[in-house]
Amino acid sequence: TQSTGVLVLLQTSLIMTDRKKKRARLFTGYRFYFHDNFELLTTKEALVEVVRIGDAEVLDQLPTPPTEDPRFIIIVDPDCSKESVEFITKVTGKCPISTYWIIDCITSYQIIDRTKYELPGPS
To answer: In angstroms, rounded to a whole number, what is the distance separating the alpha carbons of residues 50 and 1?
Structure first.
């Protein structure tokens, strides 16, 4: 599919940039939790593969107790339900981040401010 093709290009870009710049991979030291399924942009499996290429750790479940680590990121599909976002925020104290953050970080090859990618939590 088209979204898979885009991720293959991003993976290639990530690997080539790592080699050219001879520095730590983009997501070194980051830990990700991918919540639920992804339908809008791509598959969960493809996103997991991309961040692993960037040297991130991927968790199978939310950490308990919740972590204050700023390098722990919860990724959700941009179409994630409001109820799921509220649950994640309540349980973890962290706002989930849209999948677009990963794509934009790779495209610019830098960790960018994730504030604008946070999905709204409880009002």
So the answer is: 16
Residue 122 and residue 86 in contact, taking contact as beta carbons nearer than 8 Å: yes
> pTM of the prediction?
0.79
Alpha carbons within 13 angstroms on the beta-carbon side of residue 116 total 6
Contact (CB, 8 A) for 81 and 42? no
101: tokens are 């953050």
Coil, helix or strand for 69? Answer: coil
The two structure tokens encoding residue 58: 């991927």
Give the residues across from 34 on adjacent strands. 75
Alpha helices in 30-79 (DSSP H): 44-53
Over residues 57-113, the pLDDT tens digits come to 999 988 776 778 889 999 998 888 899 899 888 888 889 999 999 989 988 889 999
Angle at 95 between CA 91 and CA 97, to 5 degrees: 125
Residue 35 structure tokens: 């919540």
Q: With contact defined as beta carbons under 8 Å apart, do 72 and 97 qualify?
A: no
